Amino acid sequence: MGKIVANFFIALDGVVEAPESWHMSYINDEMMAVIGAGMERNKAFLMGRKGYDGWAAYWPTSTDEPYASYFNDIPKYVISSTLRDPSWKNTTVLPGEAGAVRQLKESVDGDILMTGSTVTVRWLLANGLLDELRLLLHPVAVGSGQKLFEDGMTQKLDLVHSQAFSTGVLDLVYRPAS
């Protein structure tokens, strides 16, 4: 049975939006090793419709290797009630129903990666479908932008792994509290 693992670059103030504008100077071999290990465990990629639109506009024609081949070749699943005919190869549309995601988890032997889709992560958490939340917490406050959790949202998590990088970035892995 697969497990759904959501990954985010996150700032101290909870912002996850536009990490390319604030996290690039923190990339080093330590971070790349964690990202690479995660890519090796992943057997599928899960996203919401907005995430799909953004990724499908970029990766099919990208020459950014080895990532382009990775994202183009891995099986992709999109939770959407409006997407009918995905153009990005290896893409399957799932209805926005918890049962469909449970079936996906049962059919995949390995991790199912998610990244950059806060709405989908919140929905998965609310439906008991997210197995792991991996955060690369950066020592920067961005000041504005979309946050992982909305105001008023309470979500209890258990810390299962932590590691500090030489850049001050923290590699944090949480699971929903039992």
SSE diagram, text form:
Layout: E1 3-11, H1 29-41, E2 42-48, H2 49-58, H3 67-73, E3 76-79, E4 91-94, H4 98-107, E5 111-115, H5 118-126, E6 132-138, E7 157-164, E8 170-176
Parallel strand pairs: 1-5, 1-6, 2-3, 2-5, 3-4
Antiparallel strand pairs: 6-8, 7-8
Can you describe what's shown?
The chain is an alpha/beta fold and 178 residues long. The protein has a single domain, classed as 3-Layer(aba) Sandwich (Dihydrofolate Reductase, subunit A), CATH 3.40.430. The protein is built from 5 helices and 8 strands, in the order βαβααββαβαβββ. The chain has helices at 29-41, 49-58, 67-73, 98-107, 118-126, and strands at 3-11, 42-48, 76-79, 91-94, 111-115, 132-138, 157-164, 170-176. It has an 8-stranded mixed β-sheet with strand order 4-3-2-5-1-6-8-7. The longest helix is centred in the N-terminal third of the chain and has 13 residues, at 29-41. It is globular, with a radius of gyration of 16 Å. The model has no long low-confidence stretch (mean pLDDT 93).
